[in-house]
Amino acid sequence: MTGGTLRIVLGDQCSRDLPSLDGLDPARDTVLLMEVQAECTYVPHHPQKIVLVLSAMRHFSRALAARGVRVDHVRLDDPANTHSFRGEVLRAVARHRPDRIVATHPGEWRVLQDMRGWEEAAGIPVEIREDTRFLCSLPRFGAWAAGRKSYRMEFFYREMRRETGLLMEGDEPAGGKWNFDAENRAALPKGLVPPAPLRFAPDDITREVMDLVAARFGAHFGDVEGFAWPVTAKEARAALEAFIRDRLALFGDYQDAMAAGQPTMFHALISTSLNAGLLDPMEACRAAEDAWREGRAPLNAVEGFIRQILGWREYVRGIYWQLMPGYAAENALGATRPLPGFYWGAPTSMRCIREAVAQTRDLAYAHHIQRLMVTGNFALLAGLDPAEVNAWYLAVYADAFEWVELPNTHGMAIHADGGVMASKPYAASGAYINRMSDYCGGCAHDPKQATGPRACPFNHLYWDFIARHADRFAGNPRMAMPLRTLAKMDPAKVAAMRAEAARFLAALDG
């Protein structure tokens, strides 16, 4: 059959309400899904991330076919696979001879650039529809950002609260405050064991994908064993419900806490489902709001959870599309040091790094404070090359797609954007990690020492970072306190810490 529309579904678009499926005519249209090697290897994605995307695609294909939709699903192991989006679109056009192509706006700049060339390459019209699965359209974000010298999430978040009505009481925020973050910074008490999150045993489809990924991408960091992420909308909703029931009530208090042997704490673990298109963000926000209104969860927990989705997730997407492609190339702090081997599992004496990297290897997951204040903080203080840091974060986490990874890493974690997102660098010494975790117990380093054989590297690196960039931060009111502290220090002590930092970094480079 010829004619009709070729409708594109990318790997992170496994949603029944995907705009490119709007108006689908099962009698004439074909839905194309493409598993391509290039998307698995442009960075060495964690095998569990590849399994997540491919399994979600195959389950989604089966669900579409069960509804009577004609599906053309090009598999990774198809011998004729060109292993590129453009190549597979052109092959599908030759097979089906459609009148036009309809796609949904992708999540990465490089894919959009490729997609914009399909019309000329295929010789038929290509319509790229806005991705309406987000709560803030890109034009809406652009209107908010227009004329601003800086982009602060808090102001954007308040507008989104007003527009959606989430956690609002008339014109005022519930509880009289927009943000309860100050109440969400407790360390995990001894004896409190977070309940295990709901995990999902791989079915036959997922097992087949796991075998394929293990064979093809076994050299990538991590492995497929232990994979238990949701791969269908039904599983994603079950994961959300389990979080609301079992962990939301204490999520707020301990969302910044870290503990050895507790990789998931009270976190939701739904970011993979949100970012792969398996779960609707408003559904997640409404479920949490309902829990508060029904007395099943406190406001500080629910507000913190909703802020991560309605505020932060929508905000970083807007930042990405507002500032790309130049944003990715910024390096405001002139950081050039190569990524150390311990990010890929090489031995290190720093227990906090070992814990974060080991669970990342095993689960393709670490929560936001581990990413920001352990691996990200180290990258910031040590002056690691932003391009290498960004590629690592994009590769190793199952929820990492560039629209969400790049601003979080580039702007929030390593301040490579010079303050476009964050008004100050999120730099911290060993004292922060000691306060928010139990990692320092049993570590080879002492968080109270900045020099000497047991000095915590985060301490001397922190003060070296502050001294190195003192001129740059002199006009930043949020950096006034560490700069005043540095100025009052004994110059000999400063010199000793900076010498310690230099020795540590030289050994790192060697």
From TrEMBL:
Superkingdom of this entry's organism? Bacteria
What the entry lists under InterPro entries is as follows:
Crypto/Photolyase_FAD-like_sf (IPR036134), PhrB-like (IPR007357), Rossmann-like_a/b/a_fold (IPR014729), UV-DNA_repair_photolyase (IPR052551)
Q: Name one Pfam family in it.
A: DPRP
Task: Specify the protein name.
Answer: Cryptochrome/photolyase family protein
Which organism does this sequence originate in?
A: Roseomonas nitratireducens
